[in-house]
Amino acid sequence: KQEVTQIPAALSVPEGENLVLNCSFTDSAIYNLQWFRQDPGKGLTSLLLIQSSQREQTSGRLNASLDKSSGRSTLYIAASQPGDSATYLCAVTGGGNKLTFGTGTQLKVEL
Amino acid sequence: EAGVAQSPRYKIIEKRQSVAFWCNPISGHATLYWYQQILGQGPKLLIQFQNNGVVDDSQLPKDRFSAERLKGVDSTLKIQPAKLEDSAVYLCASSPDSGLAGGFQETQYFGPGTRLLVL
What we know:
The complex is a heterodimer of chains A (111) and B (119).
Chain A lengths: L3 E4 L2 E5 L4 E7 L6 E7 L5 E8 L4 E4 L2 E6 L4 E6 L8 E9 L3 E4 L3 E6 L1
Parallel strand pairs in A: 2-11
Antiparallel strand pairs in A: 1-3, 3-8, 4-5, 4-9, 6-7, 7-8, 9-10, 9-11
Chain B lengths: L4 E3 L2 E4 L5 E6 L6 E7 L6 E7 L2 E4 L8 E4 L6 E5 L8 E8 L13 E2 L3 E5 L1
Parallel strand pairs in B: 2-11
Antiparallel strand pairs in B: 1-3, 3-8, 4-5, 4-9, 5-6, 7-8, 9-10, 9-11
């Protein structure tokens, strides 16, 4: 059974700081890994999707890496802003497009 | 393009009562998912439909939860009777296809969710 773990559970940083969120998974037989953002009272928004054959993906200030063999991914956020405050979820896709989510990292970026 | 619609947005009920949630996926999306997200946890898949057939309902508590997608478009999720531990956000998502061919899997698009509180 796939298990996804995210560290840290919560993080508070001052504006402008670079930060790294971590995700690990137990079964390396995945199709892809996604990072989602969840704002209070809203659904999930997909930020980055890394296919199993890829090593990283970038979008603006976000960079996600994937090391499938070791079961790890990181989400790097450069020059954090208060608008980045949200919960960030990592999820891996197995057979049948089934997503297994981590428990999330709650990020707060302070002025 | 309209996103995934869900209603109601919030619901408060007493334990042992019944409740139903509705989801309208993105037009043309064949696959529909219902997730349960308990506070402080990641979403957990309850049931996955492809068109109007069930693909995966292994984590659906079938003694109290039921779901249907009769015409292969919108879907309802029902809880009867509700328990305190059912308090959660229920998320609906859709994707164009289940990706059964393997390889590149489709992104799932999520609705805003229904927040349920059972007292």
